[in-house]
Design a protein that fits this description.
The structure holds two protein chains of two kinds. Chain A is α+β, with helices and mostly antiparallel strands. Chain A is about 55% helix and about 20% strand. Chain A contains 13 helices and twelve strands. In chain A, a hairpin with a 2-residue loop joins strand 2 and strand 3. The longest helix of chain A is centred in the last third of the chain and has 44 residues. Chain A is elongated and about 105 Å long. The two termini of chain A are about 30 Å apart. By secondary structure, chain B is an alpha/beta fold. Chain B is about 30% helix and about 25% strand. Chain B has seven helices and ten strands. In chain B, the strands form two sheets. Chain B has a six-stranded mixed sheet with strand order 6-7-8-3-9-10, with helices on both faces. Classes of the chains: A alpha+beta, B alpha/beta. Chains A and B meet through helix 10, helix 11 and helix 13 of A and helix 2 and helix 3 of B.
């Protein structure tokens, strides 16, 4: 008997009890749908997160001040005021640094006409967009000149501009930042948010910020873009040794921290890892339960069709013919279930992808894997009932009522 | 197939040759002898009725002749093949090629059309689908069921079902048709019709062994032998 004939036999048999066939497939459908969704969600989340982290800045390192110890009390990280503009200047010369932008930060009320919003005011230098991966939507960014001259000019984040009702026509107009008039020279493209809202801010020259909004010449953070991703760890080490030299510290008592994105990535990948584990667990359990369901139905089927098996044997079916007939029937159930599961899984992952905003990533390999899994389930759980059928004694089977 | 055979002038080698065939069943410590030394020759073209009451061993004899069972002693040669040396799959092959069964309860495949039912034995011979269906159709037409090809067993009368079963037995052109109480579940008109069909087939040369408990049915055969307690009686 050819495979085609066996499949045809199985299909016509399943056609006589469709509801039962579909119910039997349910476990496999859920299992395979979970596998497909699992792979698509894991891939979609990973690519979504990777691109968003890249959106924070290309090969970004962030230098922040450490905590200080006042008396016996260690205060929160970032509260020390040990990072200065001179540190920034020195770090800019370190090999591997492509761009560097020191920044200070404050909160202020921004007023434009009758609209107002409270947002963070970031004082920085002209390299800020290349370090933090901002692009301009309207106008231009701060120049070295506007920084050295401490001009009262401002670049608005997309959300801030939106909140204030400002658009392309607002370039060259004034807004009040903390009561002080600033000329709007540009508006950023929206970035979307990975951590916090990066589109809600007002960017002004660091020198201007130090004059009006923050005391002293300390900087809150220094953002550094490394020339290439393989240089990140090396550059981080060089930056550390330069700063240790300047601050007279070493390892244990460093008064600064250099953060990179790998920590962020690890956090996110542990989240997607947990998600994958969860879906993988569901998939494994439903495949096993689905397989047991198939085995159960096949055993019932063998019992119900004992007489049919007897007839087939009497008119010339060999053990192998009966074995294959029942095995192929189990396989057809599991593979059909698998195909339905793929369709369902693709739909679910497209839905999740749309809701989560990373779009839909379809990997054809999942189809191969899913069909493979259903075949394995079909064989593993179909062989035993098929062997039971094949081993029936024809005389007993013929007289079975 | 040699169609000239009769008891007076047997010709060629026997289709069935039983020599001292015995069959013993062991049920726990008890040994039950269902057949105790049977010798039988059936020539090509013969029409033999095996008559006996229930418990006489005639069903066991039919199972052995039909290669569904094997003797515990003696030899059985079917169409020149010694069945003793065959394994289960070989027996299946012999059933497929040399024997056509007609059962008391028809034993058609449920939810399967008459055409597919008749074509199924050819499936196990590895015949291609187109040829299977063509031969099955021809066999059904021969038996006057050309207009019932797509009917399932439940849509056919008993007599029609038995004719489908006969078509299924004939479609492989077997050396031997084995009919086990073929009229047992039929009204007398349909039963007479089935016996007439078997008689016709025999006239055309098919070797038939008919198993029955009913001496009236056995009349349709050329000759009959009686079984009692696992032995032939006169």
């Amino acid at each position: 008997m050819s495979l085609r004939e066996l499949v045809g036999l199985a299909l016509s048999r399943l056609g006589t009890s469709r509801l039962r066939a579909v119910l039997t497939m349910l476990g496999i459908i859920i299992g395979v749908a979970s596998i497909v969704a699992l792979v698509a969600v894991a891939q979609g989340a990973t690519s979504g997160i990777t691109s968003r982290i890249a959106g924070l800045g290309t090969n970004l390192l962030t230098v922040t001040p450490g905590s200080t110890t006042q008396g016996f009390v260690r205060t929160a990280a970032g509260t020390a005021t040990t990072l200065t503009m001179d540190d920034a200047t020195a770090l800019a010369k370190v090999q591997g640094v492509a761009a560097l932008a020191p920044q200070v930060q404050s909160q202020a009320i921004v007023v434009a006409g009758s609209q107002n919003t409270t947002t963070s005011v970031v004082g920085t230098t002209s390299a800020y967009p290349s370090v933090r991966a901002y692009t301009m939507w309207q106008g231009s960014f701060l120049t070295d000149l506007s920084v050295s001259a401490a001009l009262r000019v401002a670049v608005l984040g997309a959300t801030t501009a939106d909140d204030l009702g400002l658009g392309a026509q607002s370039i060259g107009h004034d807004v009040l930042v903390g009561g002080i008039p600033f000329r709007v020279i540009g508006i950023f493209q929206p970035k979307g948010s990975a951590v916090g809202n990066q589109d809600d801010e007002v960017v002004i020259p660091i020198t201007t910020a130090q004059r009006y909004f923050v005391a002293g010449t300390n900087v809150r953070a220094i953002g550094i873009s490394v020339a290439s991703s393989d240089l990140i760890q090396l550059t981080k080490a060089r930056l550390t040794s330069v700063l240790e030299q300047r601050h007279g510290t070493s390892g244990t008592n460093d008064d600064f921290t250099i953060g990179d994105q790998s920590q962020l990535l690890e956090t996110f990948s542990s989240v997607t890892g947990t998600l994958s584990l969860l879906l993988g667990g569901i998939a494994a359990i439903s495949l096993i339960v689905g397989g047991i369901g198939i085995m159960n139905i096949m055993l019932v089927s063998v019992r119900e069709r004992t007489r049919e098996i007897g007839i087939r044997k009497a008119i010339g079916a060999r053990r192998r013919d009966i074995l294959l007939q029942f095995l192929v029937e189990a396989l057809v159930i599991s593979v059909l279930g698998g195909l339905i599961g793929i369709v369902l899984g693709v739909a679910v992952s497209a839905l999740i992808g749309t809701l989560a905003g990373w779009g839909f990533v379809f990997n054809p390999l999942t189809v191969v894997v899913a069909v493979g899994f259903s075949l394995v389930v079909g064989v593993v759980f179909g062989v035993w009932p098929a062997r039971q059928a094949a081993r029936l004694d024809p005389i007993a089977a013929l007289h079975y009522e | 197939m040699n169609g000239s055979g009769s008891i007076e002038t047997p010709s060629g080698t026997p289709v069935i040759e039983l020599r001292g065939v015995a069959r013993t069943y062991s049920t726990g410590r008890l040994e039950v002898a269902a057949l105790r030394g049977i010798d039988l020759d059936v020539m090509p073209g013969d029409f033999l009725a095996v008559v006996g009451p229930s418990g006489s061993g005639k069903s066991t004899l039919m199972n052995i002749i039909g290669c569904l069972d094997r003797p515990t002693a003696g030899t059985y040669t079917l169409a020149g093949t010694n069945v003793e040396e065959l394994d289960d799959d070989d027996l299946a092959r012999v059933r497929s090629r040399a024997i056509g069964f007609v059962f008391q309860s028809f034993n058609l495949l449920p939810r399967t059309s008459a055409l597919e039912n008749v074509a199924t034995p050819l499936l196990y011979q590895g015949v291609g689908r187109a040829e299977r269906l063509a031969r099955a159709k021809a066999a059904l037409e021969t038996l006057g069921l050309g207009d019932r090809l797509d009917h399932e067993p439940t849509e056919l009368s008993g007599g029609q079902q038995q004719r489908v079963a006969i078509a299924r037995a004939l479609v492989t052109r077997p050396a031997l048709v084995l009919a086990d109480e073929p009229t047992g579940n039929l009204d007398s008109a349909s039963g007479t019709e089935v016996l007439r069909l078997l008689h016709e087939l025999n006239e055309e040369g098919t070797t038939i062994v008919l198993i029955t408990h009913d001496s009236d049915v056995a009349v349709a055969a050329r000759r009959s032998i009686h079984v009692r307690d696992g032995r032939f009686v006169a």
